[in-house]
Amino acid sequence: MNLDYSDDQKAFRAEVQAFLDAELPERLTDAGRKGRAPNKAEYEEWHAILNRRGWLAVNWPVAFGGTGWDAVQRHIFEEETTARGAPRIVPFGLHMLGPVLQKFGSEEQQNHWLPRILSGEDWWCQGYSEPGAGSDLASLKCEAVRDGDHFLVNGQKTWTTLGQHANMIFCLVRTSKEGKPQEGISFLLIDMNSPGVEVRPIVLLDGSAEVNEVWFTDVKVPASNIVGEVNKGWTYAKYLLTHERTNIAGVGFANAGLANLKRIARAEVDGDRPLNDNPHFAARVARVEIDLMAMATTNLRVVSAAASGQAPGPESSMLKVKGTIIRQEINALTRTAIGPWALPFQSETLEGSNEGEIGPDYAQRATGQYLNNRKLSIYGGSNEVQRSIIAKSLLEL
Amino acid sequence: MNFDLSSEAQMLQDSLRRFLSDSYDADSRARAIEAGYSPDIWAGLADLGVIGALFTEDQGGFGGTGFDIALIFEELGRAGAVDPLLDTGVLASGILADLDDPAGLLDEVIAGSVQLAFAHGEPGGRYGGRVQTVATQVGDDWHLAGRKAVVVNAPLADHLVVSARNGDEISLYLAEKGLAGIRPYPVTGGGMAAEVTLENVPATYLGPAGDVIARAEARATLALCAEALGLMEHIRTLTIDYLKTRKQFGRPIGSFQVLQHRMADVLIEIEQARSAVVNLAGNLDGPDRDRHVSATKNLVGEVARLVVEESIQMHGGIGMTTEYELGHFAKRLTMVDHRFGDALYHLERFIALSAA
Ligand SMILES: Cc1cc2nc3c(=O)[nH]c(=O)nc-3n(C[C@H](O)[C@H](O)[C@H](O)COP(=O)(O)OP(=O)(O)OC[C@H]3O[C@@H](n4cnc5c(N)ncnc54)[C@H](O)[C@@H]3O)c2cc1C
Predict the structure, then answer these.
(1) With contact defined as beta carbons under 8 Å apart, do A355 and A346 qualify?
(2) How large is the average pLDDT for residues B209-222?
(3) Beta-bridge partners for A147
(4) What is the pLDDT of residues A294-309, one digit of tens each?
(5) CA of A278 to nearest chain B CA: how many angstroms apart?
(6) How far is CA A14 from its chain centroid?
(7) A129, A241 contact by CB (below 8 A)
(8) Taking the model in full, what pTM does it have?
């Protein structure tokens, strides 16, 4: 056993660092520093920079224009970019749809859609959840009925992250009501500019509007937009999920959050000492740091066990649960750290107007982030659902 | 020992609960959040005698005990009310009452015709109450100079009660709000606050701070903790309803044992919070006041976090939205830990007071 990176891995890390020194402009780390979500232009600019270097599709094979990196390389890249506060890679096209098309899509679909993901021509969003179908996704109702050379889609999707920026949505739709619910689901690609598609923002606790409701009324979708076979969508969705769960531990985000928390604790004055020297506060920060140090290694143990290009199995549920608990604890401690500055309501929508800022810069988004990151334990399979997976697959109970 | 409400208290509770549930719906709450308070509800609170119940007979009211405060604020919390009764009716006017109302404002407070704020905290001072604002005597008048941070209700207040130092001495002063520099903003979970800049603002001397600030903050802490309790009670109702009605996998999610146990823990902790509020209400004027302030504020802060996080989690995505009622209650409850010292501050204070 050896915890150090190999010489090759060290060289790779140096290469990533040199790239970031040269290519990551300061304006693109502004969002990360302030704890706000990057805007559309910032995401697009960062994607374009990565794409020029051939580093945008971190988990695609080289044949499709990806990096072909192994799990440890992806981890190093992730660690270095989040430490600098670079925008995250928007996952829907690159981490979710891409791998599904590569495995189950027709050659035509691959040739058409994959390059457009890389170039940024298409912005994808994920249309799985519905008002009545959350944890029980297979109960989804949004319906697609075959009508000659196209499908007619009717129904609703919800919680569609960044749907306001997207021109394309990949959906799970019901194509059969026979048999088990899982056996009547298909995987369909829908142009959001089609007549009959309506998008309405949902405002979250922090005032942000990152999720949306999407309605489909008699939307015509070419039959060639079905991925794989009709009624086999559940299989593809499960495959996608394993890819969605790569990097689920969020170690990079947790490290960045912890560093920010420590910076605040040094700056805040608590009586006649820095908050950092308050033993009760310091104990809680230490406790979460100790947890994070171990979790980072759990993460590496899991990702390096997965073969190159493959996603980890049910172990990723452990990473999801522990990773989100740690990140949410860091968010809660950060809110505690800013003291009375938590009170001013500083919504993301005020961003850009300097007049909106009250108190020290580090306090601006701490309350909002605490509230917003409650989502971490809800989406992508809630922590309750993850524990059930652990009980079934790892404990065999 | 008797944990029942007196018949007058019961009547006040009933009429206040009815009034608030009639007046507060999603629309009126949204309007009140926008405006910082609701003038109609404020007038109603005065008419019902709710403001008067916060003061003793000597002070022109007909209540003023810890149990009166607790009863009233639990109801405000239950309704998710955003009106600044804590700041005007307990905190700032508590200081005035304690100093024998030198400016003669209490009658107006009880009548509902005046709004107040207590400008005490300063930038970088956290919860310690470090006062660097300076008071200088100019003839018969005083001039105040300094900065006050996160002054809740300052944008709506007619007068500010201000803490300031004259040499080593901290005293309390009354200033016209209109003469101070006010930078207003909304507070998470409702209400308004401001950054206040005092540039030689003329003020009236009220009296020495002594124990006055600690006493007023003890009462305000009780009010805040009782409000938190009301918020928790309503969140509990919403969450239990949701567990019974939301179906996934063909059954109500409340039939999943893991959620049942979590909700049972939430219930146990809310009852702990209720007892902590009772403890403080009963000891508000006793010798062990400060230890109880810290015990209650610490416990309520910890329970508030549990209730917020568990209720959102058990709702799933819908719990993350502003559109659904839980959002407002969860935000307001989260902010309870950020006034008058958080759980951590009071843990340390409790340890120090217990050792003394
Ligand atoms: C910010 C945000 C962004 C999202 N982005 C997207 C997106 O882009 N695309 C998309 O398709 N979806 C998205 N989602 C939806 C997300 O996947 C769902 O919220 C999630 O699946 C949970 O579903 P639900 O919200 O309906 O909660 P429910 O499934 O109703 O769950 C409510 C509660 O019950 C618990 N529960 C449910 N079933 C069980 C069980 N069997 N045993 C024990 N406990 C159970 C849950 O854990 C939860 O605590 C997003 C959600 C959020 C909050």
Answers:
(1) no
(2) 97
(3) A150
(4) 999 998 888 777 655 5
(5) 9
(6) 26
(7) no
(8) 0.96
